[in-house]
Amino acid sequence: MKNEIDGATGCLLFIALLAVTVAAFFLQGLYLMLAWSWVMVPIFKLPALTYWGATAISLLWVTLFEPHPNPKDNSDPIDSLKRSVLILVIDTLFMGILWLVSLGI
Questions:
Q1: Distances from the Cα of 94 to the Cαs of 7, 32, 89, in angstroms?
Q2: Does residue 41 contact residue 47 with C-beta atoms inside 8 Å?
Q3: What are 1-54's pLDDT values in tens digits?
Q4: pTM, to two decimals
Q5: SS3 assignment for 4-57
Q6: In a 3-state reduction of DSSP, which class is residue 73?
Q7: Helix (H) or strand (E) holding 83
Q8: In contact, 42 and 8? CB cutoff 8 Å
Q9: Long-range contacts made by residues 100-103, C-beta under 8 angstroms, separation at least 24?
């Protein structure tokens, strides 16, 4: 019975997953705003996006085009947390690379 999680651990995992999800939501808006400012504004002379505009576009994109989790799916919360943290790390690395590329523009 190694795979069972007691109540306190499950609650802490839920709080950690919720915190990572909220952080990802706000960071993706920031990432979109920065990427837009670094690439689209200099190349195409488009107006800059505000933080809240970029966050709204990011939320709209996720709502419309990302797959939604199945509520009947009993996936391991630790795997969900690992997946969420991995996505944040990959997004952050991508933004660092994009920033380096934008220095050459």
A1: 37, 11, 9
A2: yes
A3: 455 667 778 788 888 888 988 888 889 899 999 999 988 998 899 999 999 999
A4: 0.70
A5: CCCHHHHHHHHHHHHHHHHHHHHHHHHHHHHHHHHHHHHHHCCCCCCHHHHHHH
A6: coil
A7: helix 77-103
A8: no
A9: 101/38, 102/38, 102/39, 102/42
